[in-house]
What does this fold into?
Amino acid sequence: MSGFDVLVEVRLRPGIADPQGATIERALPALGFGGISGVSVGKAFRLRVEAATEDEARTRADDLAHRLLSNPVIEDATTTVLA
It folds into this structure.
């Protein structure tokens, strides 16, 4: 078995209010960061998954992301096996 580095990103689904993102976006011009929009806040998890193959590592991380790391009612999770 090999270890695979995996990144799981969790974001709010489209249409779900993101008050943290909105607050950051409103503050940006005052901090000298104009021309930035569409700010959203999420979570990122970096994992080391022991698995026989990259596909198995991705499947295990996907299962973890959907069962524990995210709320599937309001959040989407994306899993990436890193090179």
